[in-house]
Amino acid sequence: MKADCLAARLALVLVLACPVQALAQGFAGMGSDAQGFAVPQPDPQFAFPQDHGPHPDYRIEWWYLTANLSGPDGTPYGLQWTLFRSALAPGEGPGWDSPQIWFAHAAITTPQAHHSAERFARGGIGQSGVTAAPFEAWIDDWRMAGETLEDVTLTATGDVFSYDMRLQAEGPLVFHGDGGYSVKSAAGQASYYYSQPFFRISGQLTLPEGVVPVTGTAWLDREWSSQPLAEDQTGWDWFSLSFDDGDKLMGFQLRQTDGTVFSSGTWIGPDGATRALQDGEVIASPLETTRVAGRDVPTRWRLEVPGYGVDVEVGAINPDAWMHTSVPYWEGPVVVSGSHAGRGYLEMTGYE
Amino acid sequence: MIAAAGQALWSHWRRNPLQLFTLVAGLALATALWSGVQALNAQARSSYDAAAALLGEGRFDQLVPRSGDTIAQDRFVSLRRAGWLVGPVIEGSLDAGGERVRIVGIDPLTAPGGAGPITQAGDAPLQSFLSERLIFAHPDIAEALARSVTARVVADPGLAPDTAVTDIGVAQSLLNRPQELSRLMLAESQPRGRPPLDEIAPDLVLRPSQQSSDIGQLTGSFHLNLTAFGLLSFAVGIFIVHGAIGLAFEQRRGMVRTLRSLGLPLRHLVGLMAAELAVIALIAGAVGVVLGYLLAAALLPDVAATLEGLYGAQVSGALNLEPSWWLSGLGIALLGTGLAASGAFWRIARMPALANSDARAWSMAAGRRHALLAMAGLGLFGMAVGLVWLGSGLIAGFAGVACLLFGAALVFPLILERALKTAECRARSVRWEWFWADTRQQVPGLSLALMALLLAMAANIGVSTMVSSFRLTFTGFLDQRLTAGLYVATDDADQAEALLSFVDGRAEGVLPLLSAESRLAGQKAEILGVRVGPAYRDNWTFIAQDGAVWDRVATGEAVIINEQMARRADLWPGDRLPLAPGREVLIAGVVSDYGNPIGQAVIGEGLFGELFPETRATRFGLRTQTPDALRDALIDAGIVEEGQITDQSALKAFSMGVFERTFTVTAALNVLTLAVAGFAILMSLLTLAGMRIPQLAPAWALGLTRRELGRLELWRAVILAALTLIVAVPLGLALAWMLLAVINVEAFGWRLPMFLFPLDYAVLGALALCAAMAAAAWPALRLARTPPSQLLKVFAHEG
Questions:
Q1: pTM of the prediction?
Q2: CA of B172: which chain A residue's CA is closest?
Q3: Is B75 part of any domain?
């Protein structure tokens, strides 16, 4: 669900969502919104591998992978590979008539540098898409593919970087919210949301200074929905953390115009057992901001989950992990210290 | 006090409406010519920019099919999936109710740099563009297109003329070319590690981005020409304004003295007068801008035709004006007024409050001023020579021309005065002695108008000499180049084969016309392959050569280049020209190639086949004494269709047509400048006439009748015009030489021989004399009808 805000903003760009959004909410829960897009319903029944593939009747969807990596000398790296689908209208059409738009972001973060790239494509002509079995998600030469989603290769190239990775899942899929039905606001907006947080990843990064072999862990989010955020929600702070003791935490807060937040999360045990964290169970407070791309972005946080004895500091490996994409945002690897040690990824949107 | 002073100042204009009219009209005319030219230039430039931005041709490399004009859509996808960032384009033309519309389809998501109006218009249109199947069309064709397609058409003046842009899917269906593309645009920045193009797309060729300035460079000289004309017209107009303001300020010296004596501070007075002029300038500027718009609208079709004919650059036929254009028109009016008034203000500011208000209209101490002006003029001449000698580039050329013209204008009053003085000394009767003296006394008052006339006439002579020299040379050049009687364009190799076997024995000779586009010596150029034979040997003349040119071209050891390339790259016979990697050939000769913007290299048929093995001749020149018979025979035998044959005379007529239109605009501006100068004379004479009563009264009292006085006034105008003409002819010829030998070389890359056209100059002279007479007629008539009482009053005042 993490890029919800991001996708909402893209939806604004593409779909002039302001009036549509209100309508969409009015029709929420009736199965489809005013424009005919399907709307997520509680108590979902997923079917795999089909649900790893696209759901063109929903407005927005993504395959969102982040990885924490280490080089031979212990240098920490971050890697991002995201494919977004955004529909102008529900369903598919032949060739250029397809209403589906695809776009993707890729990035590598090092302690000193942050490289990002972006691609766009139209659906229907083969330039981009996703197939469930065998699994392949691609746009141009960027590709995540394998016999199943449990064992895939991953590639992307930018003008100054590229990577070539292999990922193997070492645990089960994890479903957020109520069995994969994840509520996004007090107003009831929701999405379908599951993750594969147990990827082991290895491969090589090609950076301007040379090729670096790396290993680490990766986290894939799958999410689709049709409802942008509520009107009073201005931005988003999202954490995916892997503690050294094997537990994992996904937590996010939506910042609201009145200064309050709506928070949510999932506590994930080493075996993949989950417990949903309700609004208020995850508390994130900024400790330090960094001037990035002309704005002040919090790059060191205090994160508390009192129910699990978590009181940690989350700090960016490179505070300048700004994504200079059409819809810009902050996304980068973090180090966790305090009551729990570990590492993870942080995404922040809506900082103007 | 300030209000009273303002009223007093304004009363001057109320009492001298003619002066006010001169001021406003002069300024309006100057602004009109200047802003009209600016409008033409701006229109053309925005058309080029629109074309370049839309098609990405200037900025981006292109992948085009090696043969044919179609790329399969799958090829786009496979290149993208191999990591090449390319954007698809389909182009074609559509007949929309008789209008030919160029349809361009793009994919806004992959177009490099975001092509066309979609990305410029903000976020919202992307949605409309993709899902509502919008078509953006140039306003010229938007309506016609809207009638013949179902999709919604949006007029967008930012597009290139006759062009419509839409989504690639829509374009494919409009053009009925599903799954087809015309070319691919390559993004400037490409990801690393892509497989080489010749491995994954051997059927496509990379066409490097034409330097975006290509069209700009080619047409730049034309626009600079227009700008120079606009500036000249503006200068002539400012002469009028300067005269009017100077006169008005002189006449108001008394009022200024009175106002200051009454206690009005100098600062306030100058401020009031500046405000007064600013208001007049703004009103005149507004009138001028409107006139300029009308002028530009009237000339635009010819400008557009010229640019398309000469450079292949498309310019929209409808003017669309930015607010900045209006503002710049008003700005230049203000600036011009300021310039023209600065001297007058200087004098007012330095005038002692109680100075004697001698209301002499024009100072008689002009002799020394004339000498000073002449010195300045000579200085400008020196600069002109220096610029021609040492300067390079079009700007230096025009600066040289400007120095020449204004130098002459500054020297002119002194020449005039000396000439009149000589005449005065030789006068055989008192009456004529008085006439010459009186004329000389008027020179200061008329000199500005006469300078304007001088400039206008010189420009006229210079430009008409250039155009006529060009016409003569060009006609000769066409005769040299178009030697075959018939020109046939075949569709393909088979038809070419059929043609060749048919004409074998029926025509005296066949000239295959081979051509290929290339870049030579860093310039865009065309390589021509020719079959060396009498058609070339007998007709072509060289500007420079080093012997046995055609023999060496025939064997492939040498090449002929055109003058444009020779001058731009400084390559001359004996130098080597690289034609292809590892293939350098000696230059044997240089030929003139008028009207061609790009470089050209002529090589033998054999060498051409070696360099471009895949290019076959599809166009042929057929040498024959009986072109009509051969033409009929070809059509009757079904070898070619009528539309594929062009005869020599039609080609020549077409070329001459392009040429004539090129100079229509120049000619029109020329006539307008002359008209402005005529107007300047009329206004000066009218202004002077009123003030000359005191000078004429004594002559009348001594027995000259009013009729005679009037007739002498006419004579005076004619004699002054004739004197101006005498100076204008050599000046005009010097100007013509500079245009032909300096400006043309810089602008177009060719130097033209200069021819003289005495008859033309005589006609111009006669016209100028008539104009002067016409301008003097009204003042003379008024003089002849001045009531004797008014003449008598002169003496009453003296008493």
A1: 0.56
A2: A96
A3: yes
